[in-house]
Structure prediction request, 500 residues.
Amino acid sequence: MSQKQILKALTGVLASFFAAMVSITIISIALPRIMEELGGDQTAFAWMITATLLANAASTPIWGKLADLFNKKMLLQISILIFVVGSVLAGLAASVPLLLGARVIQGLGIGGLMALGMAVIGTMIPPRDRGKYSGYFGGVMAVSNAGGPLLGGLLVDSPLGWRASFWAGVPVCLIAMFLIQRTLHLKHVRRPVTIDWIGASLVTVIVSLLLIWASYVGKAGYFNWVSVETLWMVGGSIILIFVLIRVEKRAADPVIPLRIITQRTPALAILASIGIGIGMFGSGAFLGQYFQVAQQATPTMAGILTLPMIAGNLLGSVVSGQLISRYGRWKPYLVAGSIMNVLALSLLGTMNANTPYWILAIGMFVNGIGMGMMLQNLVLAVQNGVKVTEIGTASSSVAFFRTVGGAAGVAVLGSALSSQVQTYIYDGLRSAGIISPDGGGSPVSGASLDLRGLPEPVKVIVEQAFGDATSVVFVIAAAAALMALICVLAIKEVPLRKHL
Prediction:
């Protein structure tokens, strides 16, 4: 296929990918207002993102396996329909539980859009040329990341309100359906179908148990680190992991292919993806909250303030993709991107409520470049080492573990932020003499995001607490990025092949 034919075939795929990414970035800006109106707290804030990522992660290996077994064009259209249904329901939700359910449906559709998009690229394009086309995906991701916060902020501040932010991607999805029908033509070779439903179910249960445990352990009103609940959730997950390994070894078409992910390059790429996922999803979610709560920025302005990270993402993704296709080398860009992530997240880990914006802008820009150089290129490194019939499974495995890392990261980071915020609030209230030294008579319940009814002195203390506590998010993310750097350094570079 010529470049013109490939780009024509990818138009609908890129459009659907854009809709999925916009839905994620829009919600990151709209969430503080949503939590304020629906009465959600910091835990609910984190789970609005975690629920989608969990559904995304749990469904990604299944979508990847289906991509190797069924017609990819049909699967893409099905995943778009699922995403549209979830988006419509989310916009109609009247409570936190209903919105969480709709977000799960959205996540199922997003899992298909992301896994199948990479599988389509791997099916049509040889690895040596794949870098520049992966760069197009990175460019779409950067544009959607830039447009999402701005569009989300404008919608939240407009008479349409936050509900319209969930519906914004629906027209794009309908256009994508039309384009895919007209332009995407892939030859499909039928082969016997075996789906590992037991493995998929075990993966979902294991990830869900661990994320629920990470979200609530150690919080007042829930359960302690050493408790029966911890024993059941963590101990049960460990037992189920051994069961999963046994099941996957015997499965004809395992949902998590142990033969592929235990190879050196895929294994290290997966570990690096977990670290990257923590930083990517965590930083995007909590920076928007920081600007709105700690800096009192409007949703629109919060979107504008995150633009340096988006600009860096676009630059790193497109430039590295073009250079990889030109020179055939990919590891130097992974190493450089990993180092940038560690440095940028460490810088953001020093932030507080009064940090000058130019420092935050530098951290976000460098972090964006690092993310752009790593996200698609880790998938490229894995695709280069597997057969074309395994590309869907291999690609989705990397995406799966990256999303699991992101979901776990948001849950853990949200829990750490909530605990830190609560500590800072009570310390501030005691210092101001608003409550007694033992914490009694506090006008603030936990880390609630509804600040409208608070007296002005208390509101200032809460805003300061959120600003000072946000640094813990990036300290943890920097540690995860350091793990990713170590894994990238250990990856052995294999020349990109020029054939499928």
